[in-house]
Structure formats: structure tokens, C-alpha cells
Design goal:
Distance between the termini of chain A: 59 Å
Distance between the termini of chain B: 37 Å
Number of domains of chain A: 2
Order of helices and strands of chain B: HHHHHHH
Strand content of chain B: under 5%
Number of helices of chain B: 7
Largest sheet of chain A: none
Radius of gyration of chain B: 25 Å
Structural class of chain B: mainly alpha
Largest sheet of chain B: none
Radius of gyration of chain A: 17 Å
Strand content of chain A: under 5%
Shape of chain A: globular
Number of strands of chain B: 0
Number of domains of chain B: 2
Oligomer: heterodimer
Order of helices and strands of chain A: HHHHHHH
Number of strands of chain A: 0
Helix content of chain B: over 70%
Chain lengths: 174, 197
């Protein structure tokens, strides 16, 4: 049994370690706490794999564990920040870290800032969509209806598209 | 899985690896030690209550003030019940991180909602018999010497202050529970949950 768990854990690590690192860094701005959250996700996954019965794909299992640990972390640690649902956000927020100098880092910092301002459900959808997951997979992981996922994905696409359009054509920016 | 709509995103942290299982075991032991420390602190806090309220109660009993002594002991017993309820609620958290995210959030919100909504029963309720008994005993004692009107006038402010404080605590918790109930309704609308607060 332990051998099977070790095998599954190693397999999950090969496939999803970067995605979980990105998830923890997107919900937690502080680097040390993000690393701690990432480790918390790994350990929750390690413990949960004893219950893995292959009724869902390993990917679904890993993402569920990771996102639920992230949601618990957000519930525990963030009290002061006012969360705004996706449909009420008009543009990508400015990152708090003014040293995010390069364009790429700035975009990632802005997306991270957006994610941290969202309620958990919207946060889960946007992170999974950024990982390249389909609406059906996102629905399976989160438990949302596919329609609700599509509405959120559409909203994220519009938000990002308008941001990049404005950034590439500053003269058209409002 | 299709390519990320934002390749910058998936390019980040591409060299990340999972934590060694041995580190997870160490982390679990550290967590268990932390829980054990917290439980020990709560037990000590509970044990400190015993000599305080027991001592006060014994003092009044020794002075022949039976009713006041018993009221103090009732308050002490109420405080112990509150500590026990706190420990029981903290220990009842079932860990199932592999459930669908919406179900997990719903369970998290439901637990908070039920804890807040039931504050009168598990937090305020155990203290009431002792506090009522103390007010009744002291007021009746004053009434014997000064009459009921003077006794009730004297008890009015302390009574209003004490029960006003209880009422504020209950009200704040109900308001917070209502906000969580609204969150639960929103979650239900997203995924078709069966839970109704």
C-alpha cells in the first residue's frame, strides 16, 4: 500500500508540482508563506492518497486537494482584503510589488493580484483555466456546473483581452 | 489539457518539485505537537477556573451565604462547560480535502454558520444559570434589608450591562451567521447543493 502511495505521489509530483507552486504563489503574495502553503498542499495530498480509489483521475484528485488547501489558507489568513466577484472586476488590478519591472513579471503580478482579490470559487476557476484545463475538467474539479464555469471563463478572457489590447495600444486605452 | 491561454503563466515555477514524504511526516508531527500544546493550554485555563470559582463558592458557603456560594459554583461549572464545548468544536473538524471544491467550501461555510448560529446554546447558555442565580440571590438579599424597589433599582444597571453584553455577542454572531448563510445560498446556486441553512 505504501509503495502504491509513493508511486502515485511521485507521479503527481512529476505532473503537477509546477502547477501547485503557481497556485500557492498566486493565492499567497508572501514568498515564505507561499512556500509553506505549497508544502501544506503536498502533505495534504500525501495523506489523502491512502484514500485514492481511482473513481476520478489523479489530476482531478490533486487539483481538488490543492485548491481546497488553498481555500482553507485564504479563509484562515485573509481577513482585511475585500473580495470582489469576477463579474464586478473591470480591469486587472495594479500589483502591490512595484519592483515587478519587466513586462512579463508585471503581467504575472497583475494576474496574481487579480486572483488574490477573488472569492475562492472564482479563484479556482481562473487558476485552472490558466493551467490550460477545459471547462469540463474545471467543472469536475470544482463541482461547479459547466455553465457556471463557462460564464467565469468568458469573463476572465474578456478581462485579459481588454487588458492586453489596452497595453499594446496605449493610445486607445481609456 | 490544452496549452495555457497565457503561456507566461505555465512557464513560471516549471522546476518545482514535491516535498519529500519524510518532511511531510515531520510536518504532521509538528502539527500534532502544536495541537497538543493548544489542548494543554485550554486544559490549564479550565483548571485555573476551578480554584477561582470553587474558592469563591467555598468562601461564601463558609460565611453561611449558601445561595451566593452555590451561584458562584454554578458560574464555574458553566465556564468549564464552555471550555469543553470550545475544545469539542475545535476537535470535530473532519479533513476531506479531496472532495469537490464547492462541496469543501460549502462544508467550511456550514461549519462556521452552525457554530455562529448556536453561540447562545454552547457559549452563552452554560453561563446563564449561575449568572441568573447570582443576580436573584444578591437582589433578594438586598430586598430583605432595603425593600424590593431599592433592590431592583440597584440590580437594574448591572443586570442590563451583563445581559446587554450577552445580547450584543449573540446579535453579532447572528449577523455573521446571516452573511455566511448568504454565501451558502450563492454556492448552492452555482452547483446545485442540497444544503439549506
Amino acid at each position: 500500500m505504501t509503495g502504491a502511495i509513493e508511486h502515485l505521489y511521485a507521479e503527481a509530483g512529476r505532473q503537477f508540482a509546477p502547477a501547485l507552486a503557481r497556485l500557492s504563489r498566486s493565492v499567497e503574495r508572501d514568498a515564505d508563506r507561499a512556500r509553506d502553503l505549497e508544502q501544506e498542499m503536498h502533505c495534504a495530498l500525501w495523506q489523502s492518497l491512502a484514500r485514492f480509489d481511482e473513481r476520478c483521475a489523479l489530476k482531478t484528485w490533486v487539483y481538488r486537494v490543492a485548491h481546497n488547501v488553498a481555500a482553507d489558507h485564504v479563509a484562515r489568513s485573509v481577513r482585511g482584503l475585500q473580495r470582489v466577484p469576477l463579474e464586478e472586476i473591470e480591469a486587472l488590478p495594479s500589483p502591490a510589488n512595484v519592483e515587478a519591472a519587466t513586462a512579463e513579471a508585471l503581467v504575472l503580478a497583475q494576474v496574481g493580484e487579480l486572483i488574490r482579490r477573488l472569492p475562492p470559487v472564482d479563484m479556482q476557476v481562473i487558476v485552472l483555466w490558466l493551467e490550460g484545463e477545459s471547462a469540463a475538467t474545471i467543472a469536475q474539479i470544482t463541482g461547479l456546473s459547466p455553465g457556471a464555469v463557462n460564464v467565469r471563463v468568458h469573463r476572465i478572457k474578456t478581462l485579459l483581452a481588454s487588458h492586453f489590447h489596452d497595453t499594446e495600444n496605449p493610445e486607445t486605452a481609456r | 489539457m490544452s496549452p495555457s491561454p497565457l503561456p507566461l503563466w505555465t512557464a513560471a515555477a516549471s522546476d518545482a518539485t514535491f516535498t519529500d514524504p519524510a518532511a511531510c511526516a515531520a510536518r504532521a508531527s509538528a502539527f500534532e505537537r502544536q495541537i497538543a500544546r493548544r489542548n494543554r493550554r485550554e486544559r490549564i485555563a479550565g483548571v485555573i477556573q476551578l480554584p477561582f470559582w470553587g474558592g469563591l463558592g467555598a468562601f461564601f458557603l463558609w460565611q453561611g451565604e449558601w445561595l451566593i456560594g452555590l451561584s458562584m459554583m454554578l458560574i464555574g461549572a458553566g465556564v468549564l462547560v464552555v471550555f469543553r464545548n470550545l475544545a469539542r468544536r475545535a476537535g470535530n473538524i473532519e479533513q476531506r480535502p479531496e472532495e469537490a471544491c464547492l462541496a469543501h467550501l460549502e462544508r467550511q461555510y456550514r461549519r462556521q454558520y452552525e457554530a455562529l448560529r448556536s453561540v447562545p446554546a454552547w457559549y452563552i447558555g452554560p453561563l446563564l444559570p449561575g449568572v441568573f442565580a447570582l443576580f436573584a440571590t444578591v437582589t433578594a438579599g438586598v430586598a430583605e434589608s432595603k425593600g424590593w424597589i431599592a433592590a431592583l433599582e440597584g440590580a437594574l444597571w448591572p443586570f442590563t450591562l451583563t445581559f446587554g453584553l450577552f445580547a450584543i455577542v449573540i446579535r453579532l454572531n447572528i449577523v455573521a451567521a446571516r452573511a455566511i448563510a448568504a454565501d451558502l445560498e450563492r454556492l448552492k446556486a452555482l452547483g446545485g447543493s442540497s444544503y439549506r441553512p
